[in-house]
Amino acid sequence: MAPKTILICDDDQGTRDTLSAILKGEYRVLAVSSGEAALVLLREDEVNLILLDVRLPGISGFDVLKIVKENYSLVECIIISALNDVETAVQAMKLGAYHYTTKDFDYDQIRSLVRHACERQELNRQVITLSAQVAEQGEREF
Question: How do strand 99-102 and strand 76-81 relate by DSSP bridges?
Fold first, then answer.
């Protein structure tokens, strides 16, 4: 099975490099510095998970999250922010983020979050596939 694709969207080069280094052994990692670039990649490539900064030049991370959830519902998003702010975290979760963490993250924590988000995505894919099969089977029996 091909490795899952993780998209890192952060305007800080150091954060992109750190996250890439943490994840590149186990995942296919893509990195961009803006929300607009992330949305272009989503149209062109199959992405499983986005590590998404809140504050980006141009379109905000929250706007990217809204677009992702409306158009790519199976893509999981983990919001990563320099802000340790409850209101920002709550807003991220309300918009459909899988998780919210700050940029002072622990490497093992990031690996664990990414692994669990990818597992959740795979389970959601299986549920959709099985639901379609059950519906199809029901139509044939009817």
Answer: parallel
